[in-house]
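seq/struct pair 1
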Amino acid sequence: MIRHEDIHHLALVATDLQRGMEEVGAVYGVTWTYPRHLRLGLRDSAGDREVALSVVYSNQGPLFLELFEAVPDTVWAASPHVNLHHIGVYVDDVGSEIERLEGLGLAIEACSPPVAGRPPGWAYMKSPAAIRIEVLDAAGREANLRWARGEVLPGS
């Protein structure tokens, strides 16, 4: 069950990560961790694939701001109308939370590919009203906090 205190971040999408960092930083008075350039496994309507994603978190939190560079033809594509992409929350059991949210009418929009019969480690769930939530495995919370505090070095 999602609890308000488990909300970890608000995610914004920018067509240019560096420019987005400058603009969002100036508007909201935040500084940033170093950007991470990731290769992520993705399961969506196009099937299973690997996608490059550049992302950064605010040093200030919680509630953190997450900013990522748009990736066309993926769940991370830019929208001409809204730059708030999703609200990210940690849950103890991603599989159970997916089932609960599906029961409320939300659908999986994209997720990490399940491994060895285990549920995804994260999933984007979208409501009929286009509200997107990212459910994240709570086991990753401390690693993300270390990154946000600047304790994780680039490339690690």
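seq/struct pair 2
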Amino acid sequence: MSLFTRSTKIVALTGLVALAVGSASAQVVAERATCDGAYKPQVGQEGKDVVWVPTPDEVVQRMLQVAKVTPKDIVYDLGAGDGKIAIAAGKLGAKSVGIEYNPDMAKLAQCYVQAEKLTGKTRIIQGDVFESDFRDATVVTMYLLPELNVRLLPKLLKDLKPGTRIVSHSFRMGTWEPEQTLDVGGRAVYFWTIPAPGTPSYAAAIAATK
């Protein structure tokens, strides 16, 4: 085979791959647009305890990076909104679950999951994060309000295994000091790990709940 012929075949194959990727991406865009046609949330709309404000893509990626999410992880996003974080975790190969109280928003997020071809990897649950079971999580992400983080902290400490990684966009957990604080385009990202009972870190976390 001549070098010219081989190079030509490589170029042709590369073009076919690019065409297939482009076609798949276009299909995802089209299917997501169909989801939007059924329900279109508005930034600032009222929820059960918070208003809906989407997390920027760059922040989503840094949240998952600081938690070192891998395909071995089980990621729960509390207050999932349109499912952006759960979907991003699914694309990294992790098993992911988004918990969203608003039934219309939960349905939209699940529609996005299907559009992204992540069914079986990512799912959205309609429910209250304070009543939901996420004990199997290895990573928990959230974008809630400071007082909700503090209210949620006792459940996190009680239900989650030591070593579970916690990431919060914008808001801390009272006086429990984060292990890392990131600045992502002017937005804060906070990182903790669930400590083992009986350790000074656990005592500090418990103190933040009072």
